[in-house]
Design a protein that fits this description.
With 144 residues, this protein is mainly alpha-helical. It has a domain of 83 residues. Helix content is 53%, strand content 6%. It contains five helices and two strands, in the order E-E-H-H-H-H-H. Strands 1-2 form a two-stranded antiparallel ribbon. Strand 1 and strand 2 form a beta hairpin. Helix 1 packs parallel to helix 4. The model has no long low-confidence stretch (mean pLDDT 87).
Length: 144
């Protein structure tokens, strides 16, 4: 597959872009983002394991996990979750199940449900706030 020449002189074509912490490759895949995310989460998991071994109570481990790990995973998920492949989602879910097995989080939820909930919250904020930046992009409201 050949890449067409750059349309704008002075700019170069790149394979990926990292915007606001989300890595997107030129095929609109976020596999690189998921890989980087899981690498960072593995480092955090090591730190949590160390804290747990040094006597941090289980409730505190859950709190730290939620505050750090889930915040990192859920960051801007409405922007990238839709571009994720089934393989990417499977890798994220497997990581979350492993964390649940080790006792860092509860096992009665999934990454997919958390990301879907974040999508719903964002959409709700958009449709309920006419001054929201994305509100003008919505189709006109229908009255019944």
């Amino acid at each position: 597959m050949s890449i067409p020449p750059v349309a704008v002189p002075g700019y170069e074509r790149v394979e990926f872009i990292k915007a606001l912490g989300i890595t997107i490759i030129r095929k609109f895949s976020i596999s690189a983002h998921v890989t980087e995310l899981l690498t960072n989460c593995a480092r955090i998991l090591f730190a949590l394991r160390t804290l747990k071994q040094h006597g941090l109570p289980p409730e505190a481990v859950h709190t730290v996990f939620q505050a750090i790990m889930m915040a990192k995973i859920n960051y801007a998920s409405p922007a990238w979750w839709g571009f994720s492949s089934a393989d990417d989602r499977g890798r994220l879910e497997a990581f979350y199940r492993r964390c649940a097995r080790f006792g860092y989080c509860n096992n009665n939820t999934t990454i997919a449900s958390m990301c879907d909930e974040a999508d719903k919250r964002l959409f709700s904020k958009i449709i309920n706030n006419p001054s929201h930046l994305l509100f003008p992009l919505l189709p006109p409201m229908k009255s019944h």
